[in-house]
């Protein structure tokens, strides 16, 4: 279901189907992925801006979504579907692919 011109209620369900990581899993991933041997970002500044927006949306009720939230939900759905085209499975050597998806809240190794 890659059509991102979905009505709002269907968009909500598709977003939550595509974003298969919990808020805690995503927050932990963003912190872990941002850590490096040389420096670690401040707690509120870890991870990608998109990852933080996904976290923000996950913390909302459907009735509280803004226009910007809806646009971000569509963008995340498009990006995950584009990365998963052909229903690729993660294999050795594709950690960058998995990490990009996880920064959007989608872990391709999680069972559907």
Summarize the structure.
52% of the residues lie in helices and 0% in strands. The chain is mainly alpha-helical and 112 residues long.
Describe this structure in words.
By secondary structure, the chain is mainly α. It is 52% helix and 0% strand. The protein has helices spanning 8-18, 23-34, 49-58, 67-83, 95-102. Helix 2 (23-34) runs antiparallel to helix 3. It is globular and about 35 Å long. The mean pLDDT is 84.
Supply the number of structural domains. 1
> What is the string of SSEs from the N terminus onward?
HHHHH
Supply the helix-strand structural class: mainly alpha
> What proportion strand?
under 5%
Give the overall average pLDDT: 84
Total DSSP E strands: 0
Shape: globular
Into which percent range does the helicity of residues fall? 40-55%
Tell me the distance between the termini: 14 Å
- Contiguous low-pLDDT stretches (5 residues minimum) are none
Helical stretch count?
5
- Biggest sheet record: none
Compute the CA-based radius of gyration: 14 Å
Search tags:
single chain; about 110 residues; mainly alpha; about 50% helix; about 0% strand; globular
List the helices and strands and how they pair.
Elements: H1 8-18, H2 23-34, H3 49-58, H4 67-83, H5 95-102
């Amino acid at each position: 279901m890659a059509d991102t011109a979905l009505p709002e209620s269907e968009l909500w369900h598709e977003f939550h189907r595509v974003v298969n990581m919990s808020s805690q899993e995503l927050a932990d991933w963003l912190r872990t992925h941002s850590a490096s041997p040389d420096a670690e970002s401040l707690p509120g500044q870890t991870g990608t801006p998109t990852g933080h927006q996904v976290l923000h949306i996950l913390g909302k009720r459907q009735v509280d979504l803004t226009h910007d939230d809806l646009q971000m939900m569509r963008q995340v759905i498009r990006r995950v579907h584009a990365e998963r085209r052909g229903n690729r499975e993660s294999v050795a050597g594709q950690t960058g692919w998995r990490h990009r998806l996880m920064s959007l809240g989608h872990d391709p190794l999680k069972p559907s």
